[in-house]
Design brief:
mainly alpha; Structural Genomics Hypothetical 15.5 Kd Protein In mrcA-pckA Intergenic Region, Chain A
Length: about 190
């Protein structure tokens, strides 16, 4: 069990954390999916590596031994929406971290156009403006299953549920880019 005040890490750190290509790839994923820090990314990478290691161990077993465990693994991955319905065990080894990150609640809220940016999606989730069905979820890293995906919407108690709310109106209006004139540049000390 362990002491609740000293919780165990749920992630493994990279083997070579200071390689340039690893750092650039991690920063790209952090920005694309709106992750708060690398710990969130590493947690999902650890989950993915556990799925892969289970699949590798099952490939080496005889067909009678692996039948039950293979069905359990594939059913779980199909339920959360990472694999297609026709997937086989070899497809588990082809999964990437983007496949897992696409199933996060924060990403799904952004993809369903409930927010303007991925960072705004994180804010609305943590502030309790998003529900899945009739249940309020305040964890941006929650993995949404296929059945739950269509139930993601604004909370009925949230002020954002009203279509006339200023935040929702601002999302529908396309803002024009700001144009600077020469007179504005001169007042600010810029070149004409």
């Amino acid at each position: 069990m362990g002491d609740p005040k000293r919780q165990r890490r749920k992630f493994d750190t990279p083997r070579f954390p200071w390689r340039r290509d690893v750092l650039q790839e991690e920063l790209k994923l952090l920005g694309t999916f709106g992750l708060r820090n690398k710990h969130e990314l590493w947690r999902h990478e650890t989950t993915l590596s556990k799925f892969r290691s289970i699949a590798r161990s099952l490939i080496g077993k005889t067909p009678e031994e692996r039948m039950k465990m293979e069905n359990e693994l594939l059913t779980k991955l199909k339920k959360i929406g990472v694999l297609q319905e026709t997937a086989v065990l070899d497809d588990v080894l082809d999964l990437s971290i983007e496949d897992i990150l696409e199933r996060r609640l924060q990403t799904i809220v952004f993809r369903k156009n409930l927010t303007k940016t991925i960072h705004q999606a994180r804010q609305l989730i943590t502030h309790g403006h998003i529900t899945i069905g009739d249940r309020r979820v305040t964890v941006p890293g929650y993995i949404v299953s296929r059945e739950e995906e269509k139930l993601v919407n604004y909370s009925p108690q949230s002020k954002l549920n009203n279509a006339a709310h200023p935040t929702r109106v601002a999302m529908t209006v396309v803002a024009k880019p700001r144009e600077f004139t020469q007179s504005r540049d001169r007042r600010r000390g810029g070149r004409p």
